[in-house]
Amino acid sequence: MNLDDTRLFAERDPHRVREVLAAFATQCREALALVAEPVVRRARPTLVVGAGMVGSAAGGDLLAACAAEQLAVPVVVHRGYGLPAAAGKQALVLASSYSGETAEVLSSVEAALARGAAVAAVTSGGRLAEMATARRLPLVRLPGGLMPRMALGYLFLPAARILARVGLPVASAGDLAEAVEILKTMAGELGPERPVAANEAKRLAQALDGRMPAIYGGPTTAGVAYRWKTDLEENAKVMALAGALPEMNHNEIEAWRAPAAQTLHLTLLRDNDEPPEIARRFAVLRDLAAPAAGGVSECRARGAGRPARLLSLVYVGMWLSYYVAVARGVDPWSVPLLDEVKRRLR
Ligand code: F6R
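^ thats the input. predicted complex w/ fructose -6-phosphate below
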């Protein structure tokens, strides 16, 4: 498959996902200006719960990764119905659903209201927006028309702003501006016009060569590894594995054996401020798994601040999954089976 043949993209990407991805930095810049109305009044909650599913949970994963070393308050991501028992009156629930129609998130909002927890909704519409409007809950109204997983800037950055507003900042304005700048630069480096030889995402897609991607992050990038997996599954319709160091050193490492591991491609997500003990673990993992693996790739975060480092890695994964979709001849936009699940459960 020649990913430098630009005719492929017009043929195989009828919904022009390439343009949505190319505009990701612009989306993030616009997202920085979006605010909740009315404003969130709960000052310094003792627990923050990001309630959402997959594409709309990914913003919560990024918040949690930014918060981990900064906030004394836990930020947890809840993927499912209801809420964890710990989410009581002092909690802030960020209900995140791009469509506003996701049953699990609507159920989390009901649970939060029943328990007297503060709720803020981040959505482009649907029943979540209706509920928020009817109850005068803080609502960030997002522009519509995207696939939820492609609206990550909208789902992440206004939620970070809400946290800052309640006294729990997870990133400085400078860190957020840096992230937007880096994404802008990367758009030129990763898009379809950039040839394979100079395009990291195309190279990673070619390196997979039909093997199952197994993506590992470190302590701060575990959520990004999971995001790569879900993008590969939803955009490219291929199965993928995701895990994190150090945990995988204690279990999955045993599965990296010949001949079975020949069907897997090991992908390591590296962060610049990895503690030395994690860097050593990546090196040992590579040494032990590479001889058995079908292939090995590494992708390195860019930037100084945590938002840039996380979003730069996520962005490579978005383009990678796009190129795998195009190479396989599947539409990177539609998710017919996911739609069918939702239709049957309505
Ligand atoms: C579809 C997608 C999904 C959705 C998930 C929840 O593009 O990305 O992972 O994010 O089905 O739906 P929303 O985001 O509308 O709450």
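The longest helix spans residues 306-328.
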